[in-house]
Amino acid sequence: MIRVNENYSRIKPTYLFAEIAARVAAHQKAHPDAKVIRLGIGDVTEPLAPAVIAAMHRAVDDEAARGTFHGYGPEQGYAFLRDRIAEVDFHARGVDVKADEIFVSDGAKCDCGNFQELLAADAKVAVGDPVYPVYVDTNVMAGRHDIQLLPCTKANSFVPSPDGCDADVVYLCYPNNPTGATASLEQLQAWVDWANAGRRLILFDAAYEAFIRTPGVPHSIFECKGARTCAVEMRSFSKTAGFTGVRCGYTVVPSELVAYAADGAAVPLKPMWTRRQTTKFNGASYITQRGAEAVYSPEGLAQTKAQIDFYLENARLVSAALAKAGYDVAGGVDSPYVWVDVKGDSWKFFDHLLAEANVVTTPGAGFGRAGEGFIRISAFNSRENVLEAIDRISKAL
Ligand code: MLT
């Protein structure tokens, strides 16, 4: 008899954003004329930057001709992209990450979900609460049910400290999804010191790094002293360059990073991740990686920065409007997400905004218990839609 993985019965039957999509579809069906504005899932709306498009067109031409055609690429990613990532995202900031420590993938979500496969089944996991559901769900699917929740509240400005955390691995995400909070270098250093002191691991999700504008806010966990012996970092082109539909991201696994076997022997994680990726993944497409490479060209950098500035201005407008309406808001600076204290049931608030304003948000409860009482508003939409959503929300409230 074939048995199922019963760990799946311990997670909600529907992924958060699938549940929201279902509610929105039902609403749209009941109100076919309603013009629904989506500020729920963080999905970009601006088209790809011209530099990226041009590079991808050239890559298509490469694929069309003998001599420049590419079949399977290197599973770790093409050197032309990994070199640019190392140079621009790290070396230019004085951060030591080598090109051969970068693993290009089809997005940070997969890497965030997959990396736990390298860890012992009984590894103790800690996550912030509220949290991006992927960290929790993928660990529960793998049989790790006893997950330590680190409350991220107004009292700690949504940045938990490692005090009292006895996990083996912690997921940190800054700028944070969903609260939009950023962590200071001192706060991240405290986590790195905690990890090194206990031979623990930090899985650092920096998918929203490109939104950081405030000087002094760290862009990478590897800005902390000692992070190379305790941290992995995931990044994404999804929000940085509008690649949610193209799919590309990368993970940095330092050569020094180890985890431990039952007998205490240190086992390097980089070869293990190489083994995992070469077995289960055939690499992001050549065309995609040429597009990602173009993000680092002078034009690509300027064009993608302008897109992010545009979303940041949306976030500022949403934040200001909600504050004006009397709500406590966090995030929205150095982040595309505005985290609003609605002082009540977040699913009810979500339903109310959908019914009365035809605006989709994300209920905080979907990100965990400590998210209850909040909603997340995403800044990813056109200016016209954001302004209209603000107007409709203000009326509905
Ligand atoms: C979100 O809305 O939280 C993100 O778009 C989800 C993701 O990046 O997978």
Descriptive account of the structure:
This protein is an alpha/beta fold and 397 residues long. It folds into 2 domains: 140 residues, Aspartate Aminotransferase, domain 1 (Alpha-Beta Complex); 248 residues, Type I PLP-dependent aspartate aminotransferase-like (Major domain) (Aspartate Aminotransferase, domain 2, 3-Layer(aba) Sandwich), CATH 3.40.640.10. The chain contains 12 helices and 15 strands. The strands form 4 sheets. Strands 2-8-7-6-5-3-4 form a 7-stranded mixed β-sheet, with helices on both faces. Helix 10 packs parallel to helix 12. The mean pLDDT is 97. The structure holds D-malate. The site of D-malate has 6 residues, from loops. D-malate binds next to loops.
Question: Regions with pLDDT < 50 over 5+ consecutive residues?
Answer: none
CATH class placement of the largest domain? Alpha Beta
Q: Which class best fits the helix and strand makeup?
A: alpha/beta
Q: In DSSP terms, counting alpha (H) and pi (I) runs of 4 or more, how many helices?
A: 12
Biggest pleated sheet: 7 strands, mixed
Distance between the termini: 55 Å
Overall shape: it is: globular
Q: Into how many domains do the coordinates divide?
A: 2
CATH fold annotation of the largest domain: Aspartate Aminotransferase, domain 2
CATH architecture assignment of the largest domain: 3-Layer(aba) Sandwich
How much of the residues is beta strand, in percent? 5-15%
Write down the Rg. Answer: 21 Å
Bound molecules: D-malate
In CATH, what is the homologous superfamily of the largest domain? Type I PLP-dependent aspartate aminotransferase-like (Major domain)
State the helical fraction.
Answer: 25-40%
Cross-sheet strand order for the largest sheet: 2-8-7-6-5-3-4
Give the strand tally.
Answer: 15
